[in-house]
Write a structure and sequence with these properties.
Length: 64
């Protein structure tokens, strides 16, 4: 890569909701993990953890 600038994390949306952050996105990531040999998602809690991890990966912490 030619640059040292990072793309992630990005700013959280000002209105508080990013319509791209869906259960479908979490399911897609869970499917990729399973294809790479990780255990499949079998419960709602299993899906919640990757979804939360994605949120932390994608968005900056907010300062209050």
């Amino acid at each position: 890569m030619a640059t040292d600038r990072t793309t992630y994390p990005i700013r959280r949306p000002e209105h508080g909701v990013d319509l791209r952050s869906t259960v479908g996105l979490a399911l897609d990531i869970a499917a990729v993990l399973a294809r790479h040999g990780y255990p499949p998602v079998v419960t709602g809690a299993d899906l919640l953890h990757p979804h939360q991890a994605l949120f932390r990966l994608i968005y900056q912490e907010t300062t209050r």
